[in-house]
Amino acid sequence: MALQALQSSGVTFRRILSHFPEELSLAFAYGSGVYRQAGPNSDQKNAMLDFVFTVDDPFAWHSKNLKKNWNHYSFLKVLGPKMITSIQNNYGAGVYYNSLITCDGRLIKYGVISTSILIEDLLNWNHLYVAGRLQKPVKIVTMNEDITLRSALDRNLKSAVTTAFLMLPESFSEEDLFIEIAGLSYSGDFRMLVGEDKTKVLNIVKPNIAHFRELYGSILQENPQVVYKSQQGRLEIDKSPEGQFTQLMTLPKSLQQQINHIMDPPGKNRDVEETLFQVAHDPDCGDVVRLGLSAIVRPSSIRQSTKGIFTAGFPILSPLPPGAGICWGLNVSTMFAKGWEAAGTGKLLIHW
């Protein structure tokens, strides 16, 4: 599996992981603190480290983490692990984030997602949230032998390639492909309209071409619908209606359904396959696919960021009780309807 190429033996990541309950099916680090980015996030040394922890039993995991890292949580901690798990699973994109935690001398944030919800997102793109993170280079810190999870991780990468093909011309460069893939989970994301650097996707891809190539190289070599000239960094794909129909039929279920909803006239109620056949013959096929992506990402990003207002505390660091470890948490203060600013940065903190 391509993702195995990015497994990390980094001591920093493993030391941080040691401060949390061990029952993780997958843990990975991502973002500018892990891979160098161009632009305003280029200061890798001082960048926040972002993690996602995947757990089979969120209730049991939060129960242990509340005992171990009580101050990581916002005021919601007083509602207990059952309510935290309900908020995690039933609102937003299925992720519960704790932010601005100082652990082992590094500022971190971490999201918790259930294994079953992650697998659904990887296969079907219900939210394209954590699945979108995993379409870009990440550092996998730990991963168990769950065959279903590993298969879903691989399927997500192949789906990203197929979706990008549908939005690209017949011939293009590796960089063009990786920019398209990296931008999938930002299509329609409202956060790109409220202060995010508009060149964010370029800043992610350009310094990390080699990492993207490592992640997707074998998939491209094995794909029968592409001619991959790896030495020249060029690709050619089948843009015939037949080729596009084959690609559309392999897209994740949620994306197919969104495309059907966009293209199906009111009252006609065509099945998905009939709609996809029409789209395959449409000169604007790529634009339709992009609209389908936006229909998934926009509501997901809004709901998840709204949830983040409540799961995050006011950014004043305070020590945990003696003997509770060396992670520091957050005190809770006033929440504002539009979020709050990270102290001293002047930037609105929205879970990214």
Topology of this protein?
Elements lengths: L10 H7 L8 E5 L18 E7 L2 H11 L11 H11 L4 E9 L2 E9 H10 L5 H4 L5 E5 L3 H20 L4 E3 H10 L16 H6 L3 H14 L3 E4 L4 E4 L3 H9 L3 H11 L8 H9 L4 H27 L5 E2 L8 E4 L22
Parallel strand pairs: 2-4
Antiparallel strand pairs: 1-2, 1-5, 3-4, 3-10, 6-8, 7-8, 9-10
Helix pairs in contact: 2-3, 4-6, 10-12, 11-12, 11-13
Mean pLDDT across all residues, rounded? 84
Largest sheet: number of strands, sense, barrel closure:
7 strands, mixed
Distance between the termini: 26 Å
- Strand and helix order: HEEHHEEHHEHEHHHEEHHHHEE
Number of domains: 1
Give an overview in words.
The protein has helices spanning 11-17, 58-68, 80-90, 115-124, 130-133, 147-166, 174-183, 200-205, 209-222, 241-249, 253-263, 272-280, 285-311; strands at residues 26-30, 49-55, 95-103, 106-114, 139-143, 171-173, 226-229, 234-237, 317-318, 327-330. With 352 residues, it is of the alpha+beta class. Strand 3 (95-103) and strand 4 (106-114) form a beta hairpin. Helix 11 crosses helix 13. The protein is globular, with a radius of gyration of 21 Å.
Can you give keywords for this protein?
alpha+beta; magnesium; 10 strands; nucleotidyltransferase; 42% helix; single chain; lipid biosynthesis; three-stranded antiparallel β-sheet
